[in-house]
C-alpha cells in the first residue's frame, strides 16, 4: 500500500488493497436498515453473514449473491450510500473531505483503540435469525431523514495527477 494513501489520493484512485484497508471493521454497515418515506431506520440486527464477534463477513466474496440487500460499496457508490454509513466510517469521511478518526486502525496500527472506544457492534448486535419481522421494532437504534444527509456535498479532493501538475 502507498504511504498515507488516504490523505494523498481520492477514493477512485485507490487500489483494491487500499480500498479494503479503509474499512475499520466496526460492522455498523452490516446492520439491517430500512428506508421508507425518506427516512432511514437502523436496527441492531446483524446481516445473516456477519460474524458479530469479529465484525467480519463470513462470505465476503459471495455476499452480494447470498444477501440481495447487501450493498456493493465502491468509489462510485459511496455518494449513494454515504447517508447510510456511520459518521465514523472512513469511506463516508473521505468522501466528505474529512480526515480519518484518530482511533482508525490505519493511524494506530490495530483495532484495539477503536474497540476500547466502543466502535463495534459486538456489544449490542443480535443475529438476524433471532428476530422476527414482528419483533424488529424493538431493535431500532436510529432513525434519520435521508434527504437531510444527502444535502451535504462532498469536498473535492485533489487527485494525484492534479497534485503532480501543481
Characterization of this structure:
By secondary structure, the chain is of the alpha+beta class. The chain has one domain. The chain is 27% helix and 16% strand. It contains nine helices and six strands. Strands 1, 2, 5 and 6 form a four-stranded mixed sheet that branches. The chain has a two-stranded antiparallel ribbon with strand order 3-4. The radius of gyration is 17 Å and the shape is globular. The protein starts with a helix and ends with a helix. The C terminus is likely disordered.
Structural class: alpha+beta
Q: State the distance separating the first and last CA atoms.
A: 24 Å
Q: Count the domains.
A: 1
Taken in chain order, the helices and strands follow as HHEEEEHHHHHEEHH
Describe this structure in a few short sentences.
By secondary structure, this protein is α+β, with helices and mostly antiparallel strands. It contains nine helices and six strands, in the order ααββββαααααββαα.
List keywords for this structure.
166 residues, four-stranded mixed β-sheet, two-stranded antiparallel ribbon, 6 strands, 27% helix, disordered C terminus
Question: What is the topological layout?
Answer:
Layout: H1 5-8, H2 16-22, E1 31-36, E2 39-46, E3 50-51, E4 56-57, H3 63-66, H4 78-81, H5 90-95, H6 105-108, H7 112-116, E5 126-127, E6 140-145, H8 146-150, H9 160-165
Parallel strand pairs: 2-5
Antiparallel strand pairs: 1-2, 2-6, 3-4
